[in-house]
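Example 3.2
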Amino acid sequence: QNTDIRLEYAMKAGRFQILPSIDIFNVFNSRKATSVVNEYTDRDGAVWNRWKMENGWQTGRRFRFGVKVRF
């Protein structure tokens, strides 16, 4: 599960409107596994000790900053 949030603030500057913003992705920094090793044997036929181990995770918390100008 991911929780994302966007914060934006509108400001007037003469006839312009300036909107700085921040996007926060994965607010709670969840790091759950998204995939596991599916190969039971290696290429020589021996049982691989990494079978069913996690090998992919959610992307950690990220930020994106932006500014819009409306006129």
